[in-house]
Design a protein that fits this description.
Blueprint lengths: L5 H30 L21 E3 L15 E3 H4 L8 E7 L2 E6 H7 L1 E6 L2 E8 L4 E6 L1 E2 L2 E2 L2 E8 L2 E6 L5 E3 L4 E4 L8 E2 L3 E4 H7 L4 E3 L40 E7 L2 E6 H4 L4 E6 L2 E12 L12 E9 L1 E2 L2 E2 L2 E4 L2 E4 L5 E2 L5 E3 L8 E2 L2 E5 H7 L4 E2 L3
Parallel strand pairs: 4-16, 18-30
Antiparallel strand pairs: 1-10, 2-16, 3-4, 3-15, 5-6, 6-7, 7-14, 8-9, 10-11, 11-12, 12-13, 17-18, 17-29, 19-20, 20-21, 21-28, 22-23, 24-25, 25-26, 26-27
Length: 381
């Protein structure tokens, strides 16, 4: 029998290897899926690509999309929202260009994800009640727009999301895909703050508020996690060691610049409502003010105790570094005496109308932040 040309033999061998690999992968699927509880819900998720131990990903109770994301959000003007939203209730504020929107936590805690477009930018507004983490992401990735839903799973007590395009799984806290085709990809964060509704109204009188008309029947205004943010509480489905430097459920504001993480505990901010610091060579200011209702205290948010709101800003404006202080219960800069809002807007004085650039960061429970960023330094500790 004549010998095949060498090139032909190599092609045949390569084809056989590819076929064996495909058969092997097909045969391996039941094994991989058996290692992930409920993975048969996810026939389109590539479990061969994972950045974490799959045993760390636990069922939180609800099934896939059992906590439904809001995909077609409706909005109402401030006056209408004020009929059902207490002025002290916490809202996530996203402002891009002339488009300013508020997402009340009384709605987000029932849905956890809102897929929206703000100022022409596709975004996902996310909130994990178990970590008290409100994070906003740009949904654009590698030339396509992703839509996100809830897997019903948790890792380190944090929401695990999925995108509907590839069905990859994403860690909400980091914005990184941890399982599936897109494993290793990261989403870009969009600046956002969490403040009382009244603070949003003062700065954005033409702003819009996420409507309760979500297409789902939920008891908006009620808190299904009553008592969860007690300082002595232990986070749900969290088995890692708790960093001893702070109580697990202490609220903290992080500032993260150039890989340097700095935490500002709310217990410290209650005594020091304005902090001027330099993080990774960047002058930053932390503003805080009491009087915002906790969304995770009583069964009714309106009846809950108040906690501070806190935001972080770069304090360089027009090449000049500003120094801030509290004067007559207002935040002012020492250089011009201008008065500033919690949202970084100068509302009176020579700099009225100017806005500070946000410093990258957000508000979370200490246990969640330190689980993912144990190398953080802590202000006042």
């Amino acid at each position: 029998m004549p010998q095949r040309p060498r090139a032909t033999r190599l092609l045949v061998r390569a084809a056989r290897v590819a076929l064996l690999a495909a058969v092997g992968w097909w045969a391996l699927q039941p094994v991989l899926r058996a290692q992930v509880p409920g993975a048969f819900e996810w026939p389109n998720t590539d479990f061969s690509k994972t950045l974490v131990d799959l045993n760390e990903i636990l069922s939180g109770g609800p099934p896939r999309d059992g906590i439904p994301a809001i995909d077609e959000p409706a909005f109402v003007p401030l006056e209408k929202a004020a009929g059902w939203l207490d002025s002290r209730e916490p809202v996530i504020v996203v402002s891009l260009g002339d488009d300013a929107r508020a997402y009340p936590l009384q709605i987000l805690m029932w849905h956890e994800i809102v897929n929206d477009t703000v100022g022409g930018v596709p975004v996902s507004v996310t909130f994990c009640p178990l970590c008290n983490a409100s994070i906003v992401f740009d949904r654009r990735l590698d030339g396509r727009v992703l839509d996100f839903g809830t897997t019903g799973r948790l890792r380190k007590s944090d929401l695990v999301m999925y995108d509907r395009q590839s069905e990859s799984w994403w860690q909400q806290f980091t914005g990184r895909a941890i399982v599936g085709e897109l494993a290793g990809k990261e989403l870009t964060r969009v600046p956002a703050s969490i403040v009382a509704f009244e603070d949003f109204r003062k700065v954005h009188p033409r702003g819009k508020v996420l409507s309760r008309d979500t297409g789902h029947a939920r008891d908006y205004g009620a808190n299904p996690y009553a008592g969860y943010d007690s300082i002595d509480q232990h986070p749900f489905l969290f088995d890692d060691p708790v960093d001893p430097r702070l109580p697990a459920m202490e609220r903290v504001l992080n500032v993260s610049i150039g890989g340097v993480h700095r935490l500002y505990p709310f217990s410290v901010l209650e005594r020091t409502p304005v902090v001027n610091e330099t993080v990774a060579g960047v002058p930053v200011a932390v503003f805080s003010r009491g009087g915002t209702l906790s969304a995770l205290d009583r069964a009714s948010i309106r009846a809950s105790r108040t906690v501070p709101s806190a935001t972080a800003w770069k304090r360089t404006l027009d090449g000049r570094v500003l120094e801030f202080q509290v004067r007559d219960e207002h935040i002012v800069d020492r250089e011009t005496g201008s008065r500033w809002s919690l949202l970084g807007h100068a509302v009176a004085g020579p700099l009225a109308g100017r806005t500070l650039e946000p410093a990258p960061g957000g508000v979370h429970f200490a246990v969640a932040w330190l689980a993912f960023n144990p190398d953080s330094s802590i202000y006042g500790r």
